[in-house]
Predict the 3D structure of the following.
Amino acid sequence: MAQKPSIPKGTRDFGPVETVRRNFIFDTIKKVFHRYGYQPIETPAMENLSTLLGKYGEEGDKLLFRVLNSGDFMAGYPAASEVPDPANLLPFISEKGLRYDLTVPFARFVVQNRNDITFPFKRYQIQPVWRADRPQKGRYREFFQCDADVIGSDSLLNEAELVMLVDEVFSALGINIVVKINNRKILAGIASYIGYPESLIDITIAIDKLDKIGLDAVNQELMLKGIPADAVSKLQPVLNMQGDSVAKIQNLRQIIGNNETGNTGLDEINTLFGFLEQMKPTMPYELDLTLARGLNYYTGAIFEVKALDVQMGSICGGGRYDDLTGVFGMPGVSGVGISFGADRIYDVMAEKQLFPETTAGSTFVLFLNFGADEVAYCIPSIALVRKAGINAELYPDADKLKKQFKYADQKLIPYVVIAGETEISAKVFTVRNMKSGSQQNVPVHEIVEFLQDIAEQTE
Amino acid sequence: MAQKPSIPKGTRDFGPVETVRRNFIFDTIKKVFHRYGYQPIETPAMENLSTLLGKYGEEGDKLLFRVLNSGDFMAGYPAASEVPDPANLLPFISEKGLRYDLTVPFARFVVQNRNDITFPFKRYQIQPVWRADRPQKGRYREFFQCDADVIGSDSLLNEAELVMLVDEVFSALGINIVVKINNRKILAGIASYIGYPESLIDITIAIDKLDKIGLDAVNQELMLKGIPADAVSKLQPVLNMQGDSVAKIQNLRQIIGNNETGNTGLDEINTLFGFLEQMKPTMPYELDLTLARGLNYYTGAIFEVKALDVQMGSICGGGRYDDLTGVFGMPGVSGVGISFGADRIYDVMAEKQLFPETTAGSTFVLFLNFGADEVAYCIPSIALVRKAGINAELYPDADKLKKQFKYADQKLIPYVVIAGETEISAKVFTVRNMKSGSQQNVPVHEIVEFLQDIAEQTE
């Protein structure tokens, strides 16, 4: 009967330590979302395939996890002769899929609930998504996304407030970051200026590789993509541009200032940077033309957040999109959003040892169990300690003390209360600091206050 | 292109109001879990079918949502001639299923991580589960379970502390409850005493119907199940038993006291009630022999929580089980657990209007937007207000005031800050109470303190 249990590849269990730490990240982000007026929604794990298919490109369609119709799943299948060609079978046996991201379900939610929603609609959503990607280090088949979007407002104040929100999240987590900002319209202006507007994506992908492969290789790649040498040479001032964001914007204005789209992009960046100057984020931010994230999707601002002092890709990113809900029959809804990469943030915090030693979720004090009488002596105090907001445990069995202390050790419980015969006759508790090993007698009626005091000091 | 979007039947979207309220319930429960030393874990939504199949009975197997193998899902299929018999096809095209409850994944987790776990292991888990049940009012295909279990300890202190935990959760939520307690060993003792130990389940199912169908119908049903009249008549003192829990226990001791199992059950109940007398829960608790919940599963204590003053089934339940992990090759692990029914708790709280009007997640103040200069005037104060821990929004567009006020109204934002030309020249803000309509001028440098004061008063 016995099976050797395992979990599907690419999925993970999270034990207590990891879950507490992950919740610390999510709770911090949620608190800041609330601070900026974002409200949570939740959508089902399963969506109709008609909602999901065709939204993520051909590759995305392949990576959807499809759920078999329940009951007699072959019931809808028309003719035995057509089996077993999967292409024939699939539409008949599966009508639902697991959500692939939070954006498409959000768009579907907005369209479905358009009459009940107050616009501008600021929502956040923290839920798992599933992708049948080949599992590898840092890439999972189930992972959480953590998105905030505001839709139904074109104001660049939204972009500026999102940068502030990002700034506040990472300040609270203790991660030093730089916020990189770009604008698709500037990139479009550049592509237009060199005479190859249709090559926007190729150009930005090439620019994106500048840091990794160097200028020569980028130029070569551009020519391989069919952009002639004279156009590539027109691009050189952009690729070679130095200086801070303000200088770059001025430079670009001279280079692509005649292009309407490019100019609009520069205006937008200018306005955004103007707001940020007033809002004063604590972390650095900069214009980064090599930022080409999600270009087939974003239409205005593009954000990316990199952790400083750590080798790690982007830990947060987002941008403005012009038509979130059009595919579901509700055109003209513009929005801007940001997505936090929980797994990478976790890795950065683990590497830099940024997780707090104790969190709101940990047990602060363990009452040892010496038997029925001693337990009876402890019970009223445990109730009062808990009532005072302190997380407390009573060890359930009168096990050997060594085992009970080991329990406290392994659960990282900082204080242990001992109540044996001696303590009972003296009407005290012995409180042991598990780290230092020091012990102290505390009268029964003072135990709550005593623990409260040290709990406050540890905070 | 446009599709009319919808979600799979039996699933739900949760909008902002519902999500905030659901989170209020989950956060309250989590806080109490932490207070009693339970630590969170999370397991993947998908489990291997080998983990899930055969754990929920034949009916349960049918209700599993199965996930199609990704990629070429027909690749493993052996011979075209055997298609399309679903019984043949299924094992080849699907190896994973969505989790059906949290108990089996927990058991799998414990066995897989046995060497890293400190026993007794107190864990909680709040995650969605999926069942392909026929959807109906109050029954969904995706719903959250909210479980706490302690395993690796036989002490009845665990049962007592779980009752206290339940008491504290419902006190915090403001729901009046009664905790009904039974013990399978008592029921086994009763079945044994009338000479039909093998009819334990039939007898308890019949007893369970006592309230609904009355004594005569119960007796009839017992006889229909093959229990002869003299055995049924031996059962009458049990069915007719009156009085409080203590009286019932004494009565039962006289009736079934010679039966070893029954006696053990009565001892356990006695010990548990003894602990509870010391621990003093605020809500009532009682022995209820008609409690037959999960009898094919629980081996000792059985709990069920009913809300008072509301027509609603059980909102929480649990019990002790002797062999959680045996099926995965780790025998002899005893545990006791409790599960909160989030959907029903939500319904009780909605019916009794127990949700707080504002929660930690709501926006407290909206700064209106009169244009660029006015926004610039507001920005530094908004930053300070947020830094003071107050949830604040800046309306992103210089829309008509009517629209901005409507936004505050619909989002239930209690205060609005107005800063037009007049306010700027006087270096004040006008703060409007959205409920009363009253307005007040507040100097710019006092706005944080002012809002903090009213925020504290509203708490």
